[in-house]
Amino acid sequence: MQDPDNLARKFLYYPDRLPAGMPPPGWAGGAEEVWIKCEDGVRIHGLWWPEPEGAPVILFLHGNAQEVYSWSLVRRELEPAGCRLLLIDYHGYGKSGGEPHEAGLYLDGKASLRWLYDNGIEDSHLVVFGKSLGGGVACEIARERELMALVLESTFTSLAGVARKLFPFLPAGIPLGEVYDSVSKLPHARCPVLVIHGEMDELIPVGEGLELYAAAPEPKELYLVPGAGHNDVSLVAGSAYARKIASFLDA
User: Fold this and answer.
1) Which of 3, 61, 182, 185 could make an SS bond with 130 (beta carbons 3.0 to 4.6 A apart)?
2) Are strands 149-153 and 126-131 parallel, antiparallel or unpaired?
3) Of 83, 104, 67, whose CA–CA distance to 250 is shortest?
4) Terminal Cα distance for the chain, rounded
5) For residue 41, what are the contacts with CB-CB under 8 A and spacing of at least 6?
6) The pLDDT of residue 2
7) Pairing state between β 32-37 and 43-49
8) Taking the alpha carbons of 139, 91, 231, 7 in that order, is the dihedral positive or negative?
């Protein structure tokens, strides 16, 4: 029988690779390529937008597919928030080394925080933004940190909570190995929390977002987008999406 850790990893992560010498795409204008070393020695790749100078920084932790060149479109969506942006690839994604696994993704998030600290960014000027799988990483690295804010979009409470949705072909009750128990970590956040979720999310039901919101400490806000699924929250919400994030950060 296959190792359960390998089972979960096989069906949870869908990393796309990038050629080592491939430059950032045109739509990632203004981005600088960065390399960050994790505690296990793996180097991960990311994109850094250093403007507007002196503005708060969003550390964006993406979902379980694609890579930073594809995800760099998020820069346009978040631009009205007026923040700088660090977008990273996890172990095994894009140009990053290693292979994806839960502990490795946590190392990616923590190494990215250290990179920001080394570049003069303090917690009070830092927004950790986790999208889908990235929300699990965000909840891990936000614990006990007095961040400017934590934003969770289309995120699950724990891997076990959505196992039947994500792995309908696996026998019920089979050990998954990977855990991502975000709902137990979220109460330990020491910053404002914004939970965003599409009301028609077919992959991670809106109830998961509601449970995360209930677990989050005050101050917190909930932003549900009617008609939005898992991957189209910003598209369905339109300009209201960036306005909501900007107003939350301003508050």
Assistant:
1) 61
2) parallel
3) 83
4) 52
5) none
6) 47
7) antiparallel
8) negative
Rounded to the nearest angstrom, the gap between the alpha carbon of residue 88 and the centroid of all alpha carbons in its chain is 9
What are the domain boundaries of the chain? 4-14+25-250
Query: Residue 44 pLDDT > 50, yes or no?
Result: yes
pLDDT digits (tens, 9 = 90+) for 49-83: 999 999 999 999 999 999 999 999 999 999 999 99
Q: Which one of the listed residues 45, 62, 101, 230 is annotated catalytic? A: 230
For the record, the structure tokens of 139 come out as: 């909840």
Q: Which two tokens stand for residue 30?
A: 């203004």
What's the rounded Cα separation, in Å, for the pair 142 and 123?
10
Known catalytic residue at 118 = no
CATH homologous superfamily of 4-14+25-250: Alpha/Beta hydrolase fold, catalytic domain (3.40.50.1820)
Please confirm, yes or no, whether 91 is among the known catalytic residues. no
Q: Mind listing the pLDDT tens digit for each residue in 3-37?
A: 545 667 778 899 999 999 999 999 999 999 999 99
E strands in the chain: 14-15, 32-37, 43-49, 57-61, 65-66, 84-88, 126-131, 149-153, 193-198, 220-225
Among candidate residues 72, 112, 132, 182, the one labeled active-site is: 132
* Active site (annotated) includes residue 96: no
Q: At 64, which amino acid appears?
A: N
